[in-house]
Amino acid sequence: MFESLSDRLEITFKKLKGQGKLSEQNIKDALREVRIALLEADVNLNVTKAFIRRVQEKAIGVEVLKSLTPGQQVIKIVHDELVAVMGAANESLNLANQPPVVVMMAGLQGSGKTTSTAKLAKRLIDKERKKCLLASLDVYRPAAMKQLQTVGEQVGATVLPTEPTENPREIAKRALEEAKKGGFDVLFLDTAGRLHIDEALMSELADVAALVNPHEILFVADAMTGQDAVSVAKNFDDRLNITGVLLSKTDGDARGGAALSIREVTGKPIKFLGTGEKLDGLEPFHPDRVASRILGMGDVVSLVETAMEKVDLEETFKLQEKLANKKGFTLEDFLTQMQQVQKMGSISDLVGMIPGAKQAMKGKELDVDDKQIKRLEAIILSMTKKERQKHALINASRKRRIAAGSGTSVQEVNKLLKQFVQTQTMMKKLGGMGGLGKMMKGMK
Ligand code: GDP
């Protein structure tokens, strides 16, 4: 998310960095570009106008602090305003109530409600040892009930058996009784969605909410729908008084307009981001970290947290040590590293989180998916030990042999070698910047 906005702002601020003094004119010029950047990122027009006005008021007439350059000063003001617009601090689910805490999930069909329900339950089960009950109120789509059953069981939650012949209010009541009887900590109600806002659906949801009085009504917004997500959120909020937003599919959204507009338009915080189809693709939303990421300052805290959760630190340290000892980065290391990185998420996302690395890696082909990793593994394993250690040995005839041995093509072998060389360059750069391993070692 935010790639395009981030790139534009980077250029704008670069110009400002060269200026010795902050004048009304150069602030105005910079803010005009920030305004265009925000609109291009699909940020709501009113939100953009208010944002620019606030930054301008703060920037003009402010004494440039001796310790800062004018460019840094404006970036700091924009950063703080971005944080303010997205909601200051992370707000999590309100679990402080007497259990069972009732969380109602609402949103349009296909926004990601069912998937997100399972993701949230997984998080609570794995991280907080909560006992979760899930119930589907979608009596219109038996497939949706089945889907909740499947994903719910996958994450170790209990799923209430329901029938399409029941009425949603009955199911909600039964689920609440069951949650009380069974000593559940959290009850998730996965409600029905429609393709568009629909009066009948809204009144059904309002009825259910009035009946069970949920502690949380989370609106699931599809980030890829941009401004539509914002207006639908406003509609749901007007009707249901939502307590927060889960912004799904942020992995498919390069612009980030919904993330920057929803809070300002609805007054309700984004609590979580959906970051992938898999059931661990969920992150708490931290406005300050996201603002830093947008401004290309790198979201080191999230990077380290992701890394700590998923990666075999020993492997990473070994790799880092190897680089520090200048033994060189070989194709075998490349394979290990790819396998590690794959666990963390896409490489470009990660690179975006490392301060300074984004610019260095611009335009490089870095992303890998599961299938690619398997092919990559096959190619590297079809090389001789010598070849793995010294990739320069791999000439045309060796490439043909490796391609045949791994069931791939010479083009693929070439592509891998190209990626390897790019990564080798990146590793050298990171090594010079202190490196990922060192950074994580400091956290240990
Ligand atoms: P519902 O109709 O609102 O319950 O939506 P679903 O949970 O069935 O999700 C609709 C589609 O979106 C499914 O194919 C999900 O796999 C996909 N999806 C949900 N959340 C995410 C996400 O964060 N990232 C991506 N890429 N896909 C998601």
From TrEMBL:
Chief subcellular location equals: cytoplasm
List ligand-binding residues for GTP: 107-114, 190-194, 248-251
Q: What class of enzyme is it?
A: hydrolase
Q: Where in the cell is it found?
A: Cytoplasm
One annotated GO molecular function is: GTP binding
EC code(s) of this entry: 3.6.5.4
InterPro entries under this entry? AAA+_ATPase, P-loop_NTPase, Signal_recog_part_SRP54_M_sf, Signal_recog_particl_SRP54_hlx, Signal_recog_particle_SRP54_M, SRP, SRP54, SRP54_GTPase_dom
Gene Ontology CC: one annotated term: signal recognition particle
Keywords attached to this Swiss-Prot or TrEMBL record, sorted alphabetically, are:
Cytoplasm, GTP-binding, Hydrolase, Nucleotide-binding, Ribonucleoprotein, RNA-binding, Signal recognition particle
GO BP terms: SRP-dependent cotranslational protein targeting to membrane
Superkingdom of this protein's organism: Bacteria
Q: Which reaction does it catalyse?
A: GTP + H2O = GDP + phosphate + H(+)
Q: Which residues are in the SRP54-type proteins GTP-binding domain?
A: 269-282
Report the sequence similarity comment from the record: Belongs to the GTP-binding SRP family. SRP54 subfamily.
What free text does the record give on domains? Composed of three domains: the N-terminal N domain, which is responsible for interactions with the ribosome, the central G domain, which binds GTP, and the C-terminal M domain, which binds the RNA and the signal sequence of the RNC.
Protein role = Involved in targeting and insertion of nascent membrane proteins into the cytoplasmic membrane. Binds to the hydrophobic signal sequence of the ribosome-nascent chain (RNC) as it emerges from the ribosomes. The SRP-RNC complex is then targeted to the cytoplasmic membrane where it interacts with the SRP receptor FtsY. Interaction with FtsY leads to the transfer of the RNC complex to the Sec translocase for insertion into the membrane, the hydrolysis of GTP by both Ffh and FtsY, and the dissociation of the SRP-FtsY complex into the individual components.
Q: How does it assemble?
A: Part of the signal recognition particle protein translocation system, which is composed of SRP and FtsY. SRP is a ribonucleoprotein composed of Ffh and a 4.5S RNA molecule.
Q: What is this protein called?
A: Signal recognition particle protein
Q: Which gene codes for it?
A: ffh
